[in-house]
Structures are given as C-alpha cells and as structure tokens.
Design goal:
Number of helices: 3
Radius of gyration: 17 Å
Order of helices and strands: EEEHHEEHEE
Largest sheet: 5 strands, antiparallel
Strand content: 15-25%
Distance between the termini: 22 Å
Shape: globular
Strand order of the largest sheet: 3-4-5-7-6
Number of strands: 7
C-alpha cells in the first residue's frame, strides 16, 4: 500500500503558529530553529496542514512534542471529512496521539529527527467495507514493547500507551519503512464500514 501524496501548501496566513491553513485545518505549531525544506526560520512561519485528499494524508513534522496538537487536528479533520462517526473519530485521534508521543519520546535521538504521519483508507481484508489506517514512521528500528501498565491508583504518567492503542483500535502493528529508509512504522486500523 502506498499513501497518497497530497500537494504541499504554503505556510498559514501571517505565519502565525496555530493559525488556520488555507484548507481550514489549523496549522501544525512550530518550534525555534529552521523548518525543514522551507528556508525560513522556525517561529516565523507555521507548517501548514496538508491539502485535503479523500483517500489519504501524509505529512512529516519534527519529532517534538509541540507538534502533537497539530497532528491531532490533521487526523481529526481528515476523518471528519470522511464522515467517520464521532466515537470512532475520538478513538482514532487518541490512538494517533499515543503513537506520536511514543515516537517522540522513545524513538527520537536528536533535534533533526522527524515523524511521518500517514492516514489512508484501505479495503477491509476480512469483510465488506473499509478501514482507516494511521501510521507513524520514525527513524528508530527498535519496535515498541508493552510494559506492565501501572495500576489505576498509580501516579505514574507513562506505561499506558500501547494498552490504549490495543483497547481503542481494531488492530495495530509494526512494519518496516519504505525500502532504503531506516526505521519503522507503527500503525493502527479502525473499521469504517462502507464509505458514503
């Protein structure tokens, strides 16, 4: 399966981080430094959300926590346009957030690392209908591993991510990235049924 290659958009109007892009989806927030491929200093321009595409979305952002809200908005906006029911949409956004946090926290080794989000609609293998498949690709080849989740009364803030992914998605796994690209993709699917 290959992801759709949506055309890149120019930075959001006024270069204000968090301002809406031209497709109405808020831009991904930026951080200090240089934005890859733009030739502009970070903090002066936001990375605009990708153009809407009915079949999929793909975007690459720096592996930094400040991009989490933008990633959530991109996934939520795309799935909303596809007509995904609200509960399924909320689950997809939460699981996406967990995968992004894991990539940033456990797979990033430096300030130049990136994470690539791909959202695509694929035919379901075992039934009529479609699945939405969301993946996060990073440069680390180390697969995620489940930890024993802390108990409900625990004050620990980590250790629940993959348990959340398992509970809220229909399936998830790990795959290699494209040939010649180091790292892995951690993906999940949600059943959509027939598309309207």
């Amino acid at each position: 399966m290959t992801a759709s290659r949506a055309p890149r958009r120019e930075p959001s109007p006024g270069g204000v981080p968090g301002a809406a892009g031209t497709d109405g989806v808020p831009a991904v927030p930026d951080r200090p430094g240089r934005a890859r491929g733009t030739g502009r200093a970070r903090g002066t321009d936001a990375v605009a959300a990708p153009a809407p595409d009915p079949s999929g979305v793909r975007c690459t952002v720096p592996a930094h926590p400040s991009y989490a809200a933008g990633i959530r908005r991109i996934v939520g906006g795309h799935l909303r346009r596809l007509g995904v029911p609200p509960e399924r949409l909320d689950n997809a956004v939460l699981v996406t957030d967990e995968l992004f946090a894991n990539a940033v926290t456990h797979a990033s080794s430096g300030p130049d690392d990136t994470v690539t989000l791909t959202v695509e609609v694929v035919p379901a293998d075992d039934r009529c209908g479609h699945d939405v498949r969301v993946s996060m690709a990073d440069s680390s080849a180390v697969p995620p591993h489940r930890r024993t989740a802390p108990g409900p009364d625990s004050a620990e803030e980590s250790g629940r991510g993959l348990a959340i992914v398992t509970a809220l998605s229909d399936d998830w796994g790990v795959a290699p990235r494209e040939p010649g690209v180091p790292g892995k993709k951690v993906w999940f699917t949600l059943a959509l049924g027939p598309l309207r």
